[in-house]
Prior knowledge:
Elements: H1 4-26, E1 31-32, H2 34-41, E2 48-54, H3 59-74, E3 80-86, H4 93-102, E4 108-112, H5 117-124, E5 134-139, E6 142-148, H6 154-164
Parallel strand pairs: 1-4, 2-3, 3-4
Antiparallel strand pairs: 2-5, 5-6
Helix pairs in contact: 3-6
Amino acid sequence: MNYMPLVRKYSLLFAFGCIYLFANAQSGSVILNLAAFENRTLQKNDTLYVVNFWATWCKPCVTELPFFEQTAQAFSQQPVKIILVSQDAKTRAVQVNEFLKKNNYTSEAFILSAGNPNVWIDKIDSNWSGTIPVTLFYKNGMKVYFHEGDYASFDELEKIIHSKL
């Protein structure tokens, strides 16, 4: 079978995705659709991706965000990647970016703009009611843990991460 057409197709999609990400990063915020989100989190490697869905207007989300930043620092020498996925509207990208800068959050962050939440929420996890905060853990391209609700402490989050490494 000739794989060149597939290679060209996916190379072109990858190139356009990189251009899109670069253009949005230049404006200070990255906005991803569901396919780009899945490409980012469903990596087939030994890294544990800890993906937290949050919003600037969600008090429990904002309260637990420091735990994720602390986690990023504590696990910086291990295969753990923290990704913060804002549920703020894409029109609030500047405000989200300002919030992250003001609070010195350095973890990877983007806004998910995937259309109708009633459709994409079930694609991410059929157990998810749609409330935030919610955290998913991915490893080797598969979801390995789902937590709906906020974390009470860094220690609670750290314990779960250690159990999934």
